[in-house]
Amino acid sequence: MRAQLAGQRDEHLRLAKQLARDEANTEYAALVAAAFIEAVERRFIKDGIKSNESEVVDFVAQVREIDDEMSDIIDPRIAESLILHLLEKGTIVDADKDKKFGHQIVLLATLVGQEQFTDTELNAFLADARSLANQLLG
Q1: What DSSP designation does 94 have?
Q2: Whose CB among 3, 29, 44, 47 lies 3.0–4.6 Å from 8's, allowing a Cys bridge?
């Protein structure tokens, strides 16, 4: 995941191919979910105050405008519902679990990219995500 979030696409793909199916379906999925939770909380909760729905809608619109491909990949209803659910402002729309997972990955990469983490900050972010993933798997 570090390679992906650091923008090292080829390295990420190489490492992803090495994952056993069980690891990809459980451990990696838990790490993605945990990192997504961490990223959403950092972006949309400031001083304990949760962003309103319009801020989430604006963010998703920005993601979809990154390029033509993003508008085809990201379904705004799914993306917004994933974020709003974490903010306790809605429920996740009914969608295929792989589709939701794909949305989490794209949204996570965008959120982390906007943070412009240093290597040290990215390592700390991933350590927090690993800790949360272990709790989720617990």
Answers
A1: P
A2: 3
Containing 106, the helix (H) or strand (E) segment is helix 97-115
| Angle between helix 53-64 and 29-44 (nearest 10) | 120
At 51-81, the pLDDT tens digits run 999 999 999 999 999 888 999 999 999 999 9
Place of tokens 């998703």: 60
Cα pseudo-dihedral 52, 54, 60, 61, rounded to 10: -160
Query: Which tokens go with 105?
Result: 């990955």
How much is the pTM? 0.90
Which H or E element spans position 119? helix 119-137
Task: For the chain, give the number of residues.
Answer: 138
The DSSP 8-state label assigned to residue 66 in this structure reads: S
Residue 1, classed as helix, strand or coil, is coil
The residue written with tokens 């974020």 in the block is: 83
DSSP string, 16-55: HHHS-HHIIIIIIHHHHHHHHHHHHHHHHEETTEEPPHHH
A 10 A CB-CB count for 104 gives 22
